[in-house]
Design goal:
Helix 4 (98-106) links the parallel strand 3 (85-88) and strand 4 (111-113). The strands form 3 sheets. Strands 2-1-3-4 form a 4-stranded parallel β-sheet, with helices on both faces. Strands 5-6 form a two-stranded parallel ribbon. It has 307 residues and is an alpha/beta fold. The protein starts with a helix and ends with a helix. The protein has helices at residues 2-21, 41-51, 74-82, 98-106, 149-167, 172-193, 211-217, 237-250, 263-273, 291-306; strands at 34-38, 55-59, 85-88, 111-113, 202-205, 220-224, 254-257, 276-279. It binds zinc ion. The site of zinc ion has 6 residues, from loops.
């Protein structure tokens, strides 16, 4: 019996080796489908909705890890360089991937940069908190484009013709349907937040991630725990004192922590200001992997915390 198993395992191993050897050197998989790599999961969810089973969609940054900081492995870099199309956010979101993405571009890999097709939001006067961090300076470009369904609709509209032109994929029907769904989602989110009086629409978050949401749905950005557009910056005592004052002056009802926010710092601010600390999922999909669920959850958590 044992000998039979060994032969069986040997055969399976041989099959695996020969399957691997048959992998073509381009991104196109064995199924003949084109290979699309999307840098992060939230954008990736919409790309999957758009292309369905017409192409293979691979996400580089695992859902739940910080897109600002994640660095690709040698295998991830290989996948990117073999892709028929790489879809990135841009505006410096993929901080740890910058070199890899630049190299792939210079190697001739085709790219679609989502933020090239939207109205880019810049940090406005009076936003955030006083800080010496240049990323927080008025005028800095905000990479958190997925916080607004209407902005993501622009991305979908722009991507559909690129999929046709670069990969020969016709997603005209899917694009129309997805654009309609994003319009409905915008209406739905607006309805959820309409439960909040204008005076309560004030956000304090882990980092400056809610700008597009605030702009679309009429929220004021009172301050951030980490005074930077990315979650990589250190927090200073002066910034913290300014944030506490802003929370009290504005009568902010909740502090939202995110991926990368220091729980110790958030709790200290909450304790000292008497404001509750609420966890908010801003950089990861929930269990069902849907952008629509992600946005509904975001709107509901914010609304319930500020009511
Ligand atoms: Zn962020």
């Amino acid at each position: 019996m044992r000998g039979k198993y060994i032969i069986l395992f040997g055969l399976v191993a041989l099959m695996l080796v020969s399957m691997l050897a048959c992998q073509p050197s381009t991104g196109t998989s064995n199924s003949g489908k084109k290979s699309i790599v999307v840098t992060y999961s939230i954008l990736g969810s919409l790309v999957k909705d758009l292309v369905g089973d017409k192409a293979t969609v691979t996400i580089s940054i695992p859902n739940g890890l910080d897109p600002h900081e994640w660095e690709p492995s040698a295998k991830d870099i290989e996948t990117i360089n073999k892709a028929d199309l790489v879809i990135e956010n841009g505006l410096g979101l993929e901080g740890g991937m910058e070199k890899t993405l630049a190299t792939a571009k210079s190697n001739g890999v085709k790219f679609f940069t989502a933020s090239d097709y939207i109205t880019v939001r810049h940090v406005g006067t009076g936003e955030g908190i006083p800080s010496s961090d240049p990323d927080q300076a008025v005028g800095a470009a905000d990479p958190h484009i997925w916080m607004d369904p209407v902005t993501m609709k622009s991305v979908v509209s722009a991507l559909a013709p690129v999929l046709m032109q670069d990969l020969g994929l016709d997603v005209t029907v899917q694009a129309q349907s997805l654009e309609n769904q994003l319009d409905s989602l915008n209406t739905e989110v607006a309805n959820i937040v309409s439960q909040l009086p204008q005076a309560d629409r004030k956000l304090v978050t882990g980092h400056e991630s809610m700008g597009y949401f605030a702009q679309r749905y009429g929220f004021k950005l009172v301050g951030v725990i980490v005074p930077s557009l990315s979650s990589q910056a250190e927090v200073s005592a002066a910034d913290l004192a300014a944030l506490k004052k802003a929370i009290q002056d504005n009568g902010v009802k909740a502090i939202f922590t995110e991926l990368g926010t220091s729980p110790v710092v958030a709790k200290a601010i909450g304790d000292e200001t008497g404001v509750k600390v609420v966890e908010l999922t801003t950089h990861a999909l929930l269990n069902d992997g849907s952008y629509f669920t992600f946005m509904r959850n975001l709107a509901n958590v914010i609304t319930n915390a500020l009511k």
